[in-house]
TrEMBL record:
Molecular function as annotated in GO: catalase activity
Alphabetized SUPFAM superfamilies for the sequence: Heme-dependent catalase-like (SSF56634)
Needed co-factor(s): heme
Keywords: Heme, Hydrogen peroxide, Iron, Metal-binding, Oxidoreductase, Peroxidase
Protein name: Catalase
Catalytic activity: 2 H2O2 = O2 + 2 H2O
Function recorded in the entry: Decomposes hydrogen peroxide into water and oxygen; serves to protect cells from the toxic effects of hydrogen peroxide.
Residues of the Catalase core domain: 22-415
Homology family: Belongs to the catalase family.
Top EC category: oxidoreductase
């Protein structure tokens, strides 16, 4: 009797191997090319289960984009501690285990990012860069969340939503508008130091490997005796530092708007592992009235001659993500994620960020975002949390009474840990007020930064500022000139002269509606029309 080849083919098609495609229910997929239809022309039937599962998951495969820092790249690596801070044992200042033993390596994940624009925006845009590190320590996760620039635009968290709204595209035109940017900055003079950095080449790092990182905010270190000091964190790239002028960035963007992500990925694939050394600055935990700035003001840099950089360890990135969404996109960071021996300071921006960062992760990834592997602590976790979307486990301890999801209890529930180091208990006294800090000189350090710049950096800064400010309302121009003159005579003079010259050649079609620093961007729509090639319809 002849073999039924059609049955044999059907049987073979259902053989499942290690590389067999399945549905999420585990069913082998035998036809991934066609939906089931009445005849080969259709119509389709409602019971196309494989298709419905596939397309409905596709419709939901993106989580909400980050409100800020949407565009990012990441990598795995480790932090190796020196066991010292400068020439002293690190235990003098902090009991955090991650820093204690020389040569100890702690696994980590890092995410670099831009701030203002969406997740597929060019990596050449003028914007701060995020620098967020998650260390999986033996005491749980420690997140050090900062930027590439050591300062920030504002010193009070109340202003953060307004700042981002002003820097983002106009809510009507959906186009970034430099007049909106400078309207906010001119009326928030504490931003002038950051404006000086962002409008210089430091506002466009050449890539992620060759930029500095900073915790930006002031933190505390606490030792075993409960004594605290104020600290600032600085990541220094061993690859050197490279920044781009606006024209150089434009040339790169014309051929590749993913250049920084590609640079990071390719470098690690080649085995050229990027490294950064971690430095801290240390200051006694008090108000320091002898300084002309408040040490908790994140618009200020701590002078290195008074508070030297002290090396404490190094970071090495040696593994690329296996899946971008699972690791880079779902990675969730928070400034409140600290381990024993690390603590908050009274920095008002830090305290505002500490609520906001973790809150946005609960909105974006979900209430159980800490059960996602990239965010999960690499140690035992035992909580009394319940429910929530996408919950994967119960966080119960071995031997725990599963009926007891509260504390305290004598019926087999979880118990508090014993604290070994003394609690840091700073004395806090004062009236509850809504006031700015007292020492708020907004331009002195901006002038110092301008004088520190090399001539090519000064020239690019002035060119970029003139290009954008010249298209702003005269009242905004006057305020920005006044800030520059207050910061440094040369700074103010060159900005004023540049704006006066720009008025003589101002194009009547000139507009502030352009990416920051791209003064001729408003000409692009007309150029596209004029340079476009005619085609016949088909």
């Amino acid at each position: 009797m002849a073999k039924d080849k059609s049955n044999e083919t059907n049987h073979q098609r259902h053989i499942e191997n290690e590389d067999t495609l399945t549905t999420r229910q585990g069913h082998p997929v035998t036809n991934n090319q066609n939906i089931r239809t009445v005849g080969n022309r259709g119509p389709a039937t409602l019971e196309n289960y494989d298709y419905i599962e596939k397309i409905s998951h596709f419709d939901r495969e993106k989580v909400p984009e980050r409100i800020v820092h949407a565009r990012g790249a990441g990598a795995h690596g480790y932090f190796e501690t020196y066991g010292t801070v400068g020439d002293e044992p690190v235990s003098k200042y902090t009991r955090a285990k991650v820093f204690q033993e020389k040569g100890k390596q702690t696994p980590l994940f890092i995410r670099f990012s831009t701030v203002v624009h969406g997740m597929h925006s060019p990596e050449t845009l003028r914007d701060p860069r995020g620098f967020a590190v998650k260390m999986y320590t033996e005491d749980g996760n420690w997140d050090l969340v900062g930027n590439n620039i050591k300062i920030f635009f504002i010193r009070d968290a109340m202003k953060f939503p307004d700042m981002i709204h002003a820097f983002r595209p106009d809510p009507i035109t959906n186009i970034q508008d430099s007049e909106r940017f400078f309207d906010f900055c001119a009326n928030s003079p504490e931003s002038f130091h950051m404006v000086t950095f962002i409008y210089s080449p430091w506002g466009i790092p050449a890539n992620y490997r060759m930029m500095q990182g900073s915790g930006v905010n002031t933190y505390r270190w606490v030792n075993k005796e409960g004594e605290a000091v104020l600290v600032k964190y600085h990541w220094e790239p061993k690859q050197g530092i490279k920044n781009l002028t606006q024209q150089e960035a434009n040339d790169i963007q014309a051929t590749n708007f993913n250049h920084a992500t590609q640079d990071l990925y390719d470098s690690i694939e080649r085995g050229e592992y990027p490294e950064w050394e971690l430095f801290v600055q240390i200051m006694s935990d008090d108000a320091h009235p002898e300084l002309d700035f408040d040490p908790l003001d994140d618009t200020k840099i701590w002078p290195v001659d008074q508070f030297p950089w002290l090396p404490v360890g190094k970071m090495v990135l040696n593994k690329n993500p296996e899946n971008y969404f699972t690791e880079v996109e779902q990675a969730a960071f928070g400034t409140g994620v600290l381990v024993d021996g690390l603590d908050f300071s009274d920095d008002k921006m830090l305290q505002g960020r500490t609520f906001s960062y973790s809150d946005t992760q609960r909105y974006r990834v979900g209430a159980n975002y800490l059960q996602v592997p990239i965010n999960a602590a690499r140690k035992r976790v035992a909580t009394n949390h319940e429910g929530g979307p996408m919950r994967q486990s119960n966080d119960k301890a071995p031997g725990q009474n599963p009926h007891i999801n509260y504390e305290p209890s004598i019926l087999g529930g979880l118990k508090e840990a014993e604290q070994t180091g003394k609690e840091h208990t700073p004395k806090v006294e004062g009236n509850l007020v809504r006031e700015s800090i007292e020492r708020n000189d907004n331009t002195k350090q901006a002038g110092e930064t301008f004088r520190w710049f090399e001539e090519w950096e000064k020239a690019d800064l002035i060119s970029n500022l003139v290009g954008d400010i010249s298209e702003c309302d005269q009242r905004i121009q006057d305020k920005m000139i006044a800030l520059a003159e207050e910061a440094d005579e040369e700074y103010g003079r060159r900005l004023r002269e540049g704006l006066d010259e720009a008025k003589k050649v101002m194009d009547k079609d000139s507009s502030s509606k352009n990416p920051l620093g791209n003064k001729d961007a408003e000409k692009a729509p007309k150029q596209a029309t004029e340079k476009g090639h005619d085609s016949e319809p088909y």
